[in-house]
Amino acid sequence: MIDLKELKKEFENCKCGMTHTLNIKDICVGSGITSEVGEILRKNNFQKRLLLVADKTTLSVSEGILDSLKGFSVTKKIYPFIREATVSEVQVIKELLKDCDGIIGVGTGTIHDICRKSAAELDKPLCLFATAPSMDGFASYNAPLVDGNFKITYSAKSPEVIIADTKILAKAPPELKSAGFGDMIGKYVGLIDWQVSSEITGEYYCEKVANLTRKATDRIFALADRITKDDEESATEVFEALLLTGIGMSFTKTSRPASGTEHILSHFWECKKLLEGEISDFHGKKVGVATLLIMKEYQRLYNKKSIKAHKEIIDWDDVLNNYGELKDEVIKLNTPDTITDDISPEIIEQKWDRIREIISSVPTEKEIFKGMKTAGCATSYEEIGISEKLMKQGLKYHPYMRRRLSLYRLSNMID
């Protein structure tokens, strides 16, 4: 069980120089605790008027949660089905939340993201009730939202309270559990990208937070053969590891400890699918497949014992043509300059041995593939409904939809 008090104490006076704060006041993970939700909220000073946001599925698996809220005045927003977290849906939740004292999101990614952003904008207390160990954003300060078919990560709110009933987590569909594994395995790419960017640009990097993410990811990796089992102990292990990476994001107020270019590639695919009027596969499934594709490239880079670097050459007409209707957002992110403009080729050459060390510090693409197979994850782009054309398009053009340096972006500067 995560000891919040000890964790906060451990990260006091960190050598990185940042003051690591945490909004979370209480984490309750236990077997059969759905009936205790109301009591937990009262203990944490949630007031009477409560907005509950869920969909039909997440509410039905959380049997007893409404009964536990007797004594609260509950306004309910129950979606028949919701897969995409959008800026417009945040506005819907905000209107309902105006007349409430606090909000509880029952579900995982999409529901939690719109609740997190709405609670932040209205400064209302937030509780997240997890129904599956399928993603790492439970403790995050960020919310990835779709605005006009373009996915943007917004600053949002980390919840005051996080609750998970391990009976519900254990009964979650195997596909969702595997998606959680895929989301976690992407942290290996994220840690490479964060360290490389720090080496090349001096971007802020906290080794202690990075180690928190690394330990959590290694912990999940070692559980590959237990991920899909209907087992409360395994579900608890996975959920707590997912929580720790979210806490890492909370400590740094950035998604760096938990996501890298593999998440951006997943978002590129998602945006292009939305333009075609299609809903893409689960977030963690896409991230897992993207991780394998990116790690294959990083392995290729590692095999280069020496390199010759040059300034990045970008055919912006080609880039913007491939973004189509989304090009205005890409222009904003790369104007008046782009993230690589101030990077000298010489620093890449000087740091190459160090970059190779960073790549070799995580499991190889083959090792990750084996772990994902064992955990029942999708391992090919075809399995997540991505065409070969879209896969290749994503690999080439995804780095331009975020103003963030990755090793993959740097590879454009290497002969």
Summarize the structure.
This protein is an alpha/beta fold and 415 residues long. The chain is built from 20 helices and 8 strands. Strands 1-8-5-4-2-3 form a 6-stranded parallel sheet, with helices on both faces. Strands 6-7 form a two-stranded antiparallel ribbon.
Overview of the molecule:
Strand 4, helix 6 and strand 5 (about 125-130) form a beta-alpha-beta unit. Helices cover about 50% and strands about 10% of the residues. The chain has 2 domains: about 5-170, Rossmann fold; about 200-205 and about 255-415, Dehydroquinate synthase-like, alpha domain, CATH 1.20.1090. By secondary structure, it is of the alpha/beta class. The protein is built from 20 helices and 8 strands. Helix 10 packs antiparallel against helix 11, helix 12 packs across helix 19 (about 390-395) and helix 13 crosses helix 17 (about 350-360). The chain has a 6-stranded parallel sheet with strand order 1-8-5-4-2-3, with helices on both faces. The protein has a two-stranded antiparallel ribbon with strand order 6-7. The protein is globular.
Keywords for this structure?
415 residues; Dehydroquinate synthase-like, alpha domain; 2 domains; 20 helices; two-stranded antiparallel sheet; alpha/beta; Rossmann fold
Question: Secondary-structure map with pairings?
Answer:
Layout lengths: L3 H7 L15 E5 L6 H7 L5 E7 H6 L3 H4 L4 E7 L7 H11 L4 E6 L1 H14 L3 E5 L11 E6 L2 E6 L5 E5 H6 L2 H12 L1 H15 L5 H15 L10 H21 L8 H15 L7 H20 L13 H8 L3 H7 L11 H6 L1 H9 L4 H10 L13 H10 L9 H4 L5
